[in-house]
Design goal:
The chain has 26 helices and 17 strands. The protein is an alpha/beta fold. Helix 1 packs antiparallel against helix 3 (53-83) and helix 4 packs antiparallel against helix 11. The longest helix is centred in the middle third of the chain and has 37 residues, at 232-268. The protein is elongated, with a radius of gyration of 41 Å.
């Protein structure tokens, strides 16, 4: 038998024995004074041999009353054991103290206690104060004040501390202690009840009603004590009834509260707790219903581009507020479209939008969407956000990426439809229009991307990557300046995979930091070997924009430089222009760490990004590398000549070296030298080669130069 069952069995057995006491306790009853006589302090009672019907009835009623309170105490303890909710502990204490006080008031303590203890209970207010403290604790915990109204919870705790202090005052000034204690207890409970009353919740109303009889009687008792208006015996007879009513109503309130809790849990299992929107489960159910009914439909996933910025700048809570406001605007803007209702239970406001995941929303459009209509829908979606969303004193303005997939055109089930809409929204972020309809070839592309990500992880573990080195030459005297380290991957099945294909995969799969660590370690080991023969040789290593968020990258570089005894000024870190702009804050922090140890900084692929001269000047770079697309046809293109000449002049004004990539012939090298370019690299001097070949090339070049 479960513990709850054993406890209840003990309670019922105890009550049965208590009820049967008047029927078989003829030897004990003569010693029990009648209740009315005890209240009138008439102790000259003549023993009788039989129990009168009236006395039997009164003892039966009191036995039932005591039994009910004991059952409730045990029952609440059982609930506490299963729920760990301290509310039940405080409620049990409140009931038990009420029982002891009532027994004392009615004179029934003579059945259980010694005369000395009875006198103590009558003349001391310890039980009364403890009862008030437990009542306040029970009330604030029932309303979950420590979670929902912390200020009121602190007031309740403060009042309890005051009551403890009044206990000591009561020993010296009893009348003041009684009056203050009763006033504070009643005022506190009424304050807590009124403050937390919410007619929206039924259990709230019932709990408030449960206190009306007991508070009314206690206030009448207070008036009777100090104004001599009411007869005290009437109140004593009504108190057990008031407590029974309170027990019934509080039990009902507990039941309603747990029912409300279950309804909330059920609601939040189908709705997002932050925005209140239907969640993905509701969306899937609606999609399943449409597919069962063989109705054509289109899933549109909407991803606000500003959400990530709002989360990083203002925090998750405000980012969720932003998404909530976006959903409201979209619900208004898209209301004229033929959208499926995702959630309209119990006559509530119809919802056409669901929260698909953390940063995106979804709608279902009846029928398949056509290409000529998608621009109209994209315009409507963006129109909802063109005015901006007001958040923390700032208007956040941004576009949305829209991914679209239709049933049965693009998918045969719910899972496929969601997967392909997600693929479409990912591709939408890379397009100028910011929307994309799923294409069948897109699935193959994504599958290939996932496979390459898994293979790249294996390649790192199995040391399948390799480094190639391309020489850099000083144009003024044809001396060796250094080299750029280039990463290569020879896939065992596919063959050679260019870096511009697998580096983005490494970034999206979260592998780029591991790749960079491997490149830095291997490149510095080779650089150490080169420096033993060519002490002034510089080695350039490329890092990704995502490496800028890894604050311990400079620490790794410092450790390796110290371990290998390499002069930091011979190492050059290359970073693409676009990466420095998109991660400007982190870029400055990481690049400054490199500069402090003496590592040189180069801006790679200059001209392909979108930075300003003023911004680049703040980075205080040491080198600027002109992208090869502006160099390879330099001897034929006036436009490229203007770009290169202007870039070189700009770099010189900032005190930086210029490295030109893609030098294919001597004529281009001569033009660059005339413009004042210091360093060049390209096939004219040497193609990228493995380290052993590059080391031999260095030795040959040194001999022939």
């Amino acid at each position: 038998m479960a513990l709850q069952g054993r406890l209840l069995l003990v309670c019922f057995v105890s009550i049965f024995l208590f009820f049967s006491l008047p029927g078989h306790a003829e030897a004990l009853i003569p010693t029990i004074p009648p209740i009315d006589s005890i209240q009138n302090n008439d102790l000259s009672i003549s023993p009788t041999s039989t129990v009168s019907d009236e006395l039997y009835f009164k003892h039966t009623l009191w036995g039932g009353f005591i039994g009910i309170l004991l059952i409730m105490c045990f029952y609440n303890l059982v609930f506490y054991r299963s729920t760990k909710d301290r509310t039940f502990i405080y409620y049990s204490c409140y009931l038990l103290l009420n029982l002891i006080i009532l027994l004392s008031d009615q004179g029934l303590t003579a059945l259980f206690y010694s005369p000395q203890l009875i006198a103590l209970l009558k003349n001391n207010l310890v039980l009364f104060y403890l009862n008030g403290i437990s009542a306040i604790l029970f009330t604030v915990n029932f309303f979950r004040m420590h979670k929902h109204n912390y200020k009121v919870w602190k007031i309740g705790i403060t009042v309890n501390c005051i009551l403890v202090g009044l206990l000591f005052i009561n020993f010296y000034v009893p009348k003041i202690g009684v009056f203050l204690g009763q006033s504070i207890i009643y005022a506190s409970i009424i304050f807590i009840l009124v403050t937390n009353y919410n007619a929206q919740y039924r259990y709230n109303r019932i709990f408030l009603m449960s206190w009306i009889p007991i508070i009314t009687l206690d206030l009448m008792s207070l008036v009777g004590n100090y104004r001599v208006i009411l007869h005290e015996s009437i109140i004593y007879q009504l108190e057990p009834l008031a407590i029974i009513i309170q027990i019934l109503l509080i039990s009902f309130a507990f039941s309603e509260r747990y029912k409300d809790k279950e309804l909330k849990q059920l609601y939040f299992s189908t709705h997002d707790p932050v925005t209140g929107l239907p969640n993905r489960l509701v969306l899937q159910k609606q999609l399943s219903q449409l597919q069962e009914d063989k109705k054509k439909h289109t899933l549109i996933i909407i991803k606000p581009t500003t959400y990530a910025d709002a989360r990083s700048s203002f925090g998750i809570r405000h980012a969720n507020d932003y998404l909530t406001e976006v959903a409201k605007q979209l619900n208004i803007q898209l209301s004229g479209l033929d959208l499926a209702s995702i959630d309209n239970k119990n006559g509530a406001k119809i919802n056409h939008i669901s929260r698909f995941n953390d940063d995106s929303l979804a709608v279902i459009l009846y029928d398949e969407i056509t290409t000529d209509l998608i621009e109209q829908y994209a315009f409507l979606v963006n129109a909802a956000l063109e005015g901006g969303i007001y958040l923390e004193g700032t208007y956040l303005v941004g576009n949305v990426d829209i991914g679209i997939a239709s049933f049965p055109l693009h998918a045969s089930n719910v899972e496929e439809l969601q997967q392909r809409a997600l693929q479409a929204v990912d591709l939408a972020g890379k397009s100028a229009e910011h929307w994309h309809i799923y294409q069948n070839d897109g699935s193959q592309f994504v599958q290939k991307k996932l496979k390459l990500a898994a293979d790249l992880r294996k390649a790192l573990m199995n040391d399948e990557l390799s480094l190639y080195f391309q020489p850099q030459i000083e144009l003024k005297n044809n001396n060796i300046y250094g080299c750029e380290v280039l990463l290569r991957w020879q896939h065992p099945e596919i063959g050679f995979i260019p870096p511009d294909e697998f580096i983005p995969i490494a970034e999206s799969a979260g592998l780029i930091n591991d790749v960079t660590e491997w490149v830095v370690e291997q490149a510095l080991l080779h650089h150490k070997s080169i420096l033993e023969v060519f002490p002034n040789h510089k080695t350039s290593i490329n890092i990704s924009g995502q490496d800028l968020t890894k604050r311990d990258l400079p620490v790794q570089v410092i450790s390796l430089l110290a371990e290998l005894e390499i002069d930091p000024s011979t190492l050059v870190i290359e970073l693409t222009e676009s990466a420095t702009v998109s991660d400007s804050l982190d870029a400055n922090i990481v690049l400054n760490d490199f500069k402090k140890i003496g590592v040189q900084i180069a801006i790679d692929d200059y001209g392909t990004g979108y930075s300003s001269l003023a911004y680049l000047s703040q980075l205080r770079f040491n080198e600027i590398k002109i992208d090869k697309q502006f160099v390879m046809e330099l001897d034929q293109s006036k436009r490229d000549q203007t770009i290169c000449k202007t870039t070189i002049e700009m770099a010189k004004s900032l005190g930086a070296f210029v490295v030109a990539e893609g030098v294919e012939n001597e004529n281009i090298a001569n033009i660059l030298q005339q413009y004042g370019c210091e360093i060049a690299q390209g096939y004219h001097f040497g193609k990228p080669m493995p380290f052993s070949d590059y080391f031999q090339w260095l030795q040959r070049y040194k001999q022939t130069a």
